[in-house]
Amino acid sequence: MSEKKYDFDSGIDRRNTCSLKWDFCEHVLGVPDVIPMWVADMDFPAPPEVVEAIKKRAEHGAYGYPFIPRSFWTSIINWMKMRHNWEIKREWLSRAPGVVPALNICVQTYTAPGDKIIVQSPVYYPFFSAVENNGRRVVKNPLVYKNNRWQMDFDDLKRKIDHRTRMLILCSPHNPVGRVWERQELEALAEICLKHDLLIVSDEIHAEHVYKGHKHIPIASLSPEVAARTITLTAPSKAFNIAGLTTSVVIIPNTKLLNLYKIQLENLGLTVNNIFGLVALEAAYTHGAAWLDQLVEYLEGNMEFARRYFEERIPEIKFLKPEGTYLALLDCRALSLPQKELNEFFLKKARVYFDEGPIFGEELVGFERMNLACPRQTLEEALRRIEKALSELRV
Description:
- The chain is α/β, with parallel strands linked by helices.
- Helix content is 42%, strand content 15%.
- It has 14 helices and 15 strands.
- It has helices at 20-29, 48-60, 70-84, 99-110, 126-132, 154-160, 183-195, 224-227, 237-240, 255-267, 275-287, 289-313, 339-349, 376-394, and strands spanning 35-36, 93-96, 116-119, 137-140, 144-146, 149-151, 165-171, 199-203, 230-234, 248-251, 318-320, 327-331, 352-353, 355-356, 367-371.
- The longest helix has 25 residues, at 289-313.
- The protein is globular.
- It starts with 19 loop residues before the first helix and ends with a helix.
């Protein structure tokens, strides 16, 4: 029997559905007719198997407090083994209402006010707020861009660790630079963290979107020693477009660290689960592999389409093709526009909305982050708009 073919060209109309991505520009910024390519969710329906599972549960009619079945945890264990060759155990697992809440819980649980926490900027901006809003101090270990690739600076990292440094927050695969870290990079990072007794909190929510020639390696899978110092945060939300169901996975092999996490989860009153999130996660991890494989192939096609379009028709903007995630950086520095004017140009002239680079760190002044998880025709229309607006700017 031939494999079912999923349709990613049709997409779905998300306007006026209380979609942050699609309704923000018109209802908050007051700019209509914008193609939003900013916040990291996709313009594809969730897998049919996930939609059907949610419908079936919704038809029951009673939505009281849910119990987490054993099959929920089994689906996570099986997925990690199948997709990432990582054998995890049920007793390592907990959950959270999202990776960002889990990140904040980890900062609160394992560090004290005034402690230093390392982030590798430019990086997903909630990393900064999770540290600063909880009274801890951000220590930046900036990535270095050389040979057309972002790389970790281990010498800088070692210089910046002192007696107040408690934790390093890793983004793997990295948002927004799109790196999928190689084994030797992760091993070098882990060695430094072990030597200096640093906890590693690894955000691996983009682990499922990795392109040809690259492989995601959970850092906790490197060795038992690394696993004992690592808290892994992940979720099916990016992979299957179910972020609004607020259900994430926390993997902590160290029993003491896991118990501390669970206590803090309870102290914050975050032990109640989203009933549809439980159903969606289990359905995605149990039945979503074929859909995801085809999605990744489609996204890689989008990346290549955009790369060629920029090179051939918009050479003033350099498209940095990612190794993973569905997010790409646009190097717009050749336009010589101040950041505010650059943002205004894309929003009001091109009618395309991106995340501005500097929110991820000062290293990205003159950059924009582009979300390519959309039907090809949407991507092509956005690129046409940019090309047309730039042609008018040149005059």
